[in-house]
Amino acid sequence: MAANVQDVIMLLGDSITQGGWEPHGFAQQLAYVYNRKLDVVNRGMSGYNTEWIIPVLEQCFATRDDRAPLPTVRLLTIWLGANDAAQPPTRQHVPLAQYRANLRALVRTVASPDSPRYSPATRVLLLTPPPVSEPMWARRQAEKVPPRALDRRFDVTRAYADAVREVAGELGVHVVDVWSAIWTRAGEKEEGLAEYLRDGLHLTESGYNVVFEILMEAISTHFPEMHPDKLQPVFPYFDEIDDEDPRSSLQKRDAFAT
Amino acid sequence: MAANVQDVIMLLGDSITQGGWEPHGFAQQLAYVYNRKLDVVNRGMSGYNTEWIIPVLEQCFATRDDRAPLPTVRLLTIWLGANDAAQPPTRQHVPLAQYRANLRALVRTVASPDSPRYSPATRVLLLTPPPVSEPMWARRQAEKVPPRALDRRFDVTRAYADAVREVAGELGVHVVDVWSAIWTRAGEKEEGLAEYLRDGLHLTESGYNVVFEILMEAISTHFPEMHPDKLQPVFPYFDEIDDEDPRSSLQKRDAFAT
What we know:
The structure is a homodimer. By secondary structure, the first copy, chain A, is α/β, with parallel strands linked by helices. The first copy, chain A, has a single domain, classed as SGNH hydrolase (Rossmann fold). The first copy, chain A, has 9 helices and 5 strands; from the N terminus they run βααβαβαβααβααα. In chain A, strand 3, helix 4 and strand 4 form a beta-alpha-beta unit. Chain A is globular, with a radius of gyration of 20 Å. The mean pLDDT of chain A is 90. The interface between A and B is large, with 54 and 54 residues. Chains A, B: It comes from Daedalea quercina L-15889. Chains A, B: Keywords: Hydrolase. Chains A, B: Residues 11-209 form the SGNH hydrolase-type esterase domain.
C-alpha cells in the first residue's frame, strides 16, 4: 500500500454495475460502509459483454511485476451476463458456451497461479445477472427512436444465470445469486419484478438494496475478515489521535492489520 | 496512468466530506457523473481539523519520485474548518491564525514548486465550511451521553469561512463558497438552515445538492477542460466497439485525450 493509494474493491460488469453509483446503488452503499477502509472502483461499462470485458480487466488489473506501488484489489466482483444474453442479431450477444468460457477466463486472470495477473490477496465473487421482465423491456425498446424489438428473454437470461452458478462451482468461486434473490422476492411472478427492475433490465433502488444485502451476506459468510466492522480505518478515528504527539498517531495503517 | 488505476478526484476534509458517500452526497454525485472517466477517492475524516489533516495529505499524495505508476490526482478539494472552529477546550479547536497557516500549508503541499508533492496536473479548490445552526447543534450536543455543551458558534465558523476566502485570494486558488451558498439559500435566517443542516453541523441531502451544484459550477467556470462532458470514457462506449476487431478498439485511453 504505497502513498496515495488504499486497497480497493473493484466492481467489474456492465451497465448494472455502472449504475451502482446511483444514490442507493450498490457501489454507493459499499463506498459508504467501507469509507476510510477500502476505496471502491467501478469498472462497470454499459452494454459490455464478457467478450469485451476480458481486455478491460487485463488493462485494469496490474500484473505481478507492476503491482508493488499500486493498490491491492481485495475484492473483485464479476457481474456480467445481462448483455451476453441479448438475442442475436444484437451485437452484444455471446453464445452460452462462449459466455461460460469467458467467465472462466475472467476468474483465471486473477485466480490462476500461471496468470501474469495472479493475485492471491484478491477475493473473487461471481454475481448472476438479474431476471428480465419481458413486458417492461419490450415497452422500453418500443419507446426508443427508432423503436427496437425485444432482444432479452426471461428464460435465456435464466440460463445465463445458471451458467454462472455452474462455472463458479467448477472453479470453487463463491456466487452472489442476484437472479434468484430478486426472483424469490418478486414472488416468482412477472408482475413482482417491477419493484426491482426500472425498465425490465436495470435495477431500481430496491433492486440494488437486494444486491447490497446479499453481497454483504456473502462477505460475512465467506470472507468474514473483510467485513467492514473487522477492518480498521487507514487513519485513526479522531478521538484516538494523541494530543501530545498527533503526528505520530497519524501514521497510515493497513486496514487489515487489526 | 498505469494498469489498474485511473486518474482521480481526491476529496480531503472532515466528517462533512466523509458523509459525501451518503446517497445524494457530493462524493456519490461526483462518482456518478465522472463514472468511467475519473475515480473519486474520499479522504474525509470525521472530527479532523487542518492540523491533523496535514500529515494525512502527506501520506495520501505521492511524492514526485513515487508518482510514475500511480493515479494522477486531477482535482483536489480541501474542505475543513467545521472542526477547527470548535471552541476551546474542545481538542479539535485550531486558532484562526494557525488555521490560515494550515490551509496555506495544505495548498502548498501540491501547488508549490519546491514541495516534494508538487503536482502541476492537480487543480485545487478550497471549500468554505457550512454555516452552523447553534440551536440545532445545541440540541444534538444535549442529547449525547453524557450531554455536551454547545461547542460551535455561528459567528466563529463564519470567521473561519472568511479566512478560507482570504487565503485562497492570497494564493490564487479558487473557492467553492459553501458557507455563503447555504446561508443565501436559507434566506440569511437561522430557521432557514434546517433544510440544509441535519444536526446544525452536518449536511442534509439538500445541503449536499448545493455543494455539488456550486462545485460543478466552479469546475465549469475555472477548469472547463475537466467538466465530465469534456472527458472521454477510459474505455469506449459499447456502440463504438469495433465488431471486426473488438480487442484493438478496447485500448485504455486517457480521459483527457479528446
